[in-house]
Request: fold
Amino acid sequence: MDPRITLVTLGVTDLDESIRFYRDGLGFPMRDRDEDSDVAFFELDGTWLSLYPRELLAEDATVSADGSGFAGVTLAHNVETQSAVDTLLDEAQAAGGRLVKHAQEASWGGYSGYFADPDGHLWEVAYPPLSGE
Reply:
């Protein structure tokens, strides 16, 4: 297997709401889609994000759609500065996301915080000072 991820699919409860959050709120570039389509695709830098109804995604994987709490997965977005972390967390909240963890100095030496999308999928926004700035 080549070590790469080409697509991340999030199971969502309200596809239209999630499209508005990612496309209109966060500015993700959405691929054209038929209005009655059950899926939305966003072409990101290096991978794709898709949104698909939670029930249908669970059915496709042959697992139960029931569940709550931490799913054991987070998505991450790295930015160039600490202030960009704060700005993006504010943008996510303005778009309808929920602040989960205020940005703060991280134990690994960076600066990060978390937000949840309308379905509770967790995103970490981080400034990793990899070059020692």
Observations:
- The mean pLDDT is 92.
- Residues 82 and 127 are 6 Å apart (CA to CA).
